[in-house]
């Protein structure tokens, strides 16, 4: 029998999972309260959100440090490495299903709900009763209450961000090639450049949101178009932030002399996730901005 299957490191009980769960709960509640209190003087939601973010950062730093110490101590076997790969694979699969649900909602709205409201498929009565003046076009720029907004064009910042994110996948591939060849300087340079491009992407997305709110009148309450736009782009931005954080941790480890051509799954896991985020953005760019 392969000896790698004879030993399997089982870590001691850890407080980090429950801390992470509490942090995510505080972030969810805080984000909801913050949105509800945008036009009010109360700021309790912002404090709840901030406390959740602080707890999440503490959890990430502590848990990452714990796992890195275990890895550098030689506690992980080949079987443990296979378990990490399977775990990361299932995690990315769950993320695929996460975004599939939101893209499915967008598809349902555009292909079914909007035409039905417009009176198609023998739903003329629905149109006459619910919204007689409704026109079945996408994007919907007029809400039932009469609020008017503008659509976010695909050129400009969205196109620039697409180019930036695709370029970051290329630089990450070069970094992957460098670590497999133990070319440390190239690895540091290309990995650092990938992280920088990710941060630039996030900065441009913030600028895009400001433009949407201030100049286009595109907000969370701008009907189904505004809802789907911010839901998809917002969740993607959160995933880019997580991916950039993972790459940053890997880059810091590389700077400390960790990881080499024989043992670098931490790099591979972060790279898998980053490429996944890039693919999601391509789908998002096509179905949210272009079509």
UniProtKB/TrEMBL annotation:
Keywords of this entry: Membrane, Translocase, Transmembrane, Transmembrane helix
Subcellular compartments: Cell membrane; Membrane
Residues annotated as domain Heme-copper oxidase subunit III family profile: 4-291
E.C. designation(s): 7.1.1.9
Database matches in InterPro entries: Cyt_c/ubiquinol_Oxase_su3, Cyt_c_oxase_su3_dom, Cyt_c_oxidase-like_su3, Cyt_c_oxidase_su3-like_sf, Cyt_c_oxidase_su3_a-hlx
Membrane topology recorded in Swiss-Prot or TrEMBL: Multi-pass membrane protein
Keyword RNA-binding: no
Pfam families associated with the record: COX3
PROSITE patterns the record matches: COX3 (PS50253)
TM annotation in the entry: 16-35, 47-68, 88-109, 187-204, 224-252, 272-290
Protein family according to the UniProt entry: Belongs to the cytochrome c oxidase subunit 3 family.
Protein name according to UniProt: cytochrome-c oxidase
Species assigned in the record: Pseudoalteromonas obscura
Lineage: Bacteria, Pseudomonadati, Pseudomonadota, Gammaproteobacteria, Alteromonadales
